[in-house]
Structure to design on (564 residues):
């Protein structure tokens, strides 16, 4: 069991590392035309206070206080000449503000004012701002109205270049996020739908269902957090989706851990889970009912999230050496642990940014992407382990069932299986026929040639019997030299012809192997011969009685003494 856990977790890590390497090294983008980052040289006005030669990545240097709702920001910069580039454009990421762009005195882009004046939530968004071909030397001006408290302290430098080149650079930079987000989303939906079919039949399916929903949630969160959709689709609710799914991460982690491990202090754990869920619902209510935007309540998430992730790491370390947790549970816990660790590091980087300690964006992206990727790979490994164990269990159960209902010598169904078959006949409306068969001379063969020869006699006859009634009826060995055939729908079946074919096959064997004579006594009875509602066992007794009458007659003809 321990080896299975370790192997699955190592496979998940290896696949995650390989996918990250593949995306980072094999998928490249080389711009055909020059691309410029417009970070320096901006003239910025904040509520009328003008600052010159500003670097947008150090916007906080010109701020006296946090930005407030309603603040007016104007930024302008002369555009450099990049030569004759097709489809010139600027890619800019706004953060909780409206955006109106001018080239000279002409308005070339407008976003978010309607939502702003209706006090609706304006999130983060990438904007492709198309430029005319004669843009060079003209002044690009961006006017913004702040929609949230502390909307930003730094801004990503806008990129100027040919729009296809800028798109290619953006996709290459975020390819890891795009691929992971799509995989999480598709994987989660596919396996959630699959698990719905087994929700009442499989005991562990609840953890699989929650894990699938968690994958969907993570896929939606990671793509919306990095705004990878907004450059290509108009997605004004992308940031709302980011916060909505972000606040669900902690409850999902708690729930997964609750389902896959044995909780000692169950009431305390459930209390923490319920409080986290209620906090999340409270934040949603504030946003959708009272228009207190999700970003405003972000500190609540930071506090509960940090506590929750630390608890998850603690539970994982505490349970890693325990032997009462299943391999499936340990794999799922490992995925949640990796994700929690990545979230803690990511949260630390996020908070350091507020102290103006800059960490490379790519490092933060790799950390959070790796955590999500390891989690989904652990989920996939868990599914593979579960399928493998289920298949092995099914084979074992099938083997045990076969042993319970099969005759050890002939591999035909045994008396127990025959009795069950007879019981099942009580539920059929068709006319059936039961044939009772008994080998002749088995005792003589055992006494004269030994029991191995007697066993061969039985096995040879079982092959003849199976061949004769193949696709016709149910064949079984119910005793030492006693056999039974049940033909469920006997209409149109010539029973005497079938018995004759069986006897002919035995005569052929007698001609080829003449050390002893092989023969059987048979008797059969139909359902319709007895009163309506007569149990199938009574029909069998009638067939058995007729078989013994036939056997006595055959023994008299052959001069064999009847068995007592």
């Amino acid at each position: 069991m321990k080896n299975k856990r370790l192997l699955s977790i190592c496979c998940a890590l290896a696949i995650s590392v390989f996918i990250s390497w593949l995306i980072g090294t094999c998928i490249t983008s080389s711009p055909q035309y020059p691309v410029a980052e417009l970070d320096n040289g901006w003239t910025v006005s904040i509520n009328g206070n003008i600052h010159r030669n500003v670097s947008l990545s150090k916007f906080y240097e010109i701020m006296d206080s946090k930005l407030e709702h309603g603040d007016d920001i104007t930024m302008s910069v002369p555009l450099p000449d990049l030569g004759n580039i097709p489809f010139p454009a600027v890619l800019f990421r706004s953060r909780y503000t409206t955006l109106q762009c001018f080239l000279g005195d002409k308005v070339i882009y407008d976003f978010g004012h309607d939502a702003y004046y209706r006090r609706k939530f304006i999130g983060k968004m990438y904007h492709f701002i198309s430029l005319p071909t004669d843009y060079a030397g003209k002044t690009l001006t961006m006017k913004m109205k702040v929609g949230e408290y502390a909307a930003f302290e730094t801004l990503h430098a806008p990129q100027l270049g040919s729009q296809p080149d800028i798109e290619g650079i953006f996709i290459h930079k975020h390819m890891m996020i795009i691929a992971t987000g799509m995989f999480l989303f598709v994987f989660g939906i596919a396996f959630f739908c699959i698990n719905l079919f087994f929700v009442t039949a499989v005991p562990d399916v609840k953890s699989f269902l929650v894990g699938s929903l968690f994958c969907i949630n993570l896929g939606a969160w990671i793509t919306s957090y990095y705004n990878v959709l907004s450059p290509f689709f108009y997605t004004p609710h992308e940031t709302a989706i980011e916060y909505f799914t972000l606040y669900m991460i902690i409850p999902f982690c708690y729930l997964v851990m609750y389902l896959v491990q044995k909780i000692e202090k169950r009431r305390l754990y459930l209390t923490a889970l319920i409080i986290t869920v209620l906090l999340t619902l409270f934040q949603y209510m504030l946003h959708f009912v009272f228009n207190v935007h999700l970003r405003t309540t972000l500190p609540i998430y930071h506090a509960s999230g940090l506590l929750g992730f630390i608890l998850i790491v603690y539970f994982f370390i505490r349970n890693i050496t325990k032997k009462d947790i299943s391999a499936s549970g340990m794999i799922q816990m490992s995925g949640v642990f990796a994700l929690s660790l990545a979230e803690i590091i990511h949260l630390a980087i996020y908070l350091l940014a507020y102290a103006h300690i800059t960490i490379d964006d790519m490092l933060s992206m790799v950390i959070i992407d790796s955590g999500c990727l390891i989690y989904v790979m652990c989920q996939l490994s868990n599914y593979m382990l579960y399928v493998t164990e289920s298949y092995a269990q099914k084979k074992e159960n099938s083997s045990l069932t076969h042993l319970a209902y099969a005759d050890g010598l002939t591999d035909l169904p045994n008396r127990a299986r025959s009795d069950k078959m007879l019981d099942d006949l009580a539920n059929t409306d068709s006319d059936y026929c039961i044939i009772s068969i008994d080998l002749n001379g088995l005792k003589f063969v055992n006494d004269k040639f030994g029991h191995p020869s007697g066993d061969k006699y039985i096995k040879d006859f079982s092959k003849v019997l199976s061949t004769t009634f193949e696709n016709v009826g149910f064949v079984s060995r119910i005793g030492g030299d006693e056999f039974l055939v049940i033909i469920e729908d006997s209409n149109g079946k010539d029973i005497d012809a079938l018995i004759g074919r069986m006897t002919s096959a035995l005569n052929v064997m007698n001609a080829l192997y003449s050390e002893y004579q092989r023969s059987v006594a048979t008797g059969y009875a139909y359902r319709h011969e007895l009163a309506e509602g007569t149990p199938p066992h009574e029909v069998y007794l009638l067939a058995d009685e007729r078989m013994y009458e036939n056997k006595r007659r055959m023994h008299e003809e052959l001069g064999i003494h009847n068995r007592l």
